[in-house]
Amino acid sequence: xxxxxxxxxFARKMDCGLELFAExxxxxxxxxxxxxxxxxxxxxxxxxxxxxxxxxxxxxxAFEHEEDFEKSIRIALKLSKHSExxxxxxxxxxxxxxxxxxxxxxxxxxxxxxxxxxxxLEHKKAKTTxxxxxxxxxxxxxxxxxxxxxxxxxxTSGFFAMSQCGFKEGEAADAQSGSSFFFSPRQIAKNAxxxxxxxxxxxxxxxxxxxxxxxxxxxxxxFNLFMDYNFSAESLRKKITKxxxxxxxxxxxxxxxxxxxxxxGNLPSEFDDEANKTKKTALIExxxxxxxxxxxxxxxxxxxxxxxxxxxxxxxxxPNISFTNISVEGGNAKDLVLECKxxxxxxxxxxxxxxxxxxxxxxxxxxxxxxRNGEITHPVKNLLMKGNFxxxxxxxxxxxxxxxxxxxxxGRMKTEIDFIS
Length: 421
Fold this sequence. Notes:
The chain is α+β, with helices and mostly antiparallel strands and 421 residues long. It contains 9 helices and 23 strands. It has helices spanning 4-14, 69-80, 108-126, 185-199, 216-230, 233-237, 296-302, 336-339, 389-394, and strands at residues 17-33, 36-54, 57-63, 94-97, 129-146, 151-167, 170-178, 203-204, 208-214, 255-258, 281-285, 288-289, 310-311, 320-321, 326-329, 342-349, 360-372, 375-381, 384-388, 397-398, 403-405, 408-410, 413-420. The strands form 4 sheets. Strands 1, 2, 3, 4, 5, 6 and 7 form a 7-stranded mixed beta sheet that branches. Helix 3 runs parallel beside helix 4. The N and C termini lie far apart (61 Å).
């Protein structure tokens, strides 16, 4: 491993600021196609991402072998001459974290086969046809050193499970991911089977304005399309979002956070990948836009405080703005389905046909059911859901009871939307 002393020495020699990010990741995946083991893969990824600061300009270079360290500094310095100048510095944070490492990763193969067999049993019980069942695990160790004395070491885990099955002429799937193994692959298989069976025999119903209850999967798709885009400070800097600080966007009881402390989330972390201590950030507070997600570069360019949202997808890329986990708080409804006399229960939809800037969307439904007198009844088909995310959020009602799905901590949501049949 390249030492702190070596980094400091080259920084003095080259008269620049210097940062080195090192990543080691092992990803193990088991896949069953139909009822047979299709593949068992172990993928290793290891390398370095290097950044320099010279004359207020940042340059980046990725490399895989330690002997390319000096050459990569020279490449990054050359590339920095073409970047935009702005005030930027490397923080000198020191820290070590294994808080979000699930030790079940160490015995992944020991239990993964049993989980896959359990998934197949769920399909057998449901009399659905298994198409694909997958369980995977990633173990990542990151190191960050810089010429200001920073030394950050993080060890994290990640789990993923997916089940896809068929019933009659249709197919359905469910999936879950998280930094810890808090979910049940068998339940995921059962969900997929339930979706496939409950979607069979879907009927057509008239369009019009309807009360809609979104389950967490559908909320995740909406937030993934609109929240991530409109609450990134880079969108604000480029003036390609209609949101602004102080804008009323949700009911006054609702606050929405970027939450790196969510232990079962997708990206919990005590430090971001720029050596900043993370914190829970209120993006929306009591219904009003309160803040945005910043990495250090965007915060510096805009003159705002950083929010420690500078993360890397791998060593091959510099840090950019990434959300950790989204948490919706303040919901107070007890059971939205029970309270609904006539409406639609939305599980999933096609995410084409969205304008992230204006909030307008037009989504064909995939899995949805009619609600009658507080009960989810028959499946519906051939409906187009049409509306505006920002208008919808203003009247949204959330349940107080929450669940975690792919880094979203939220209760079910009710609103009104137009449908075209």
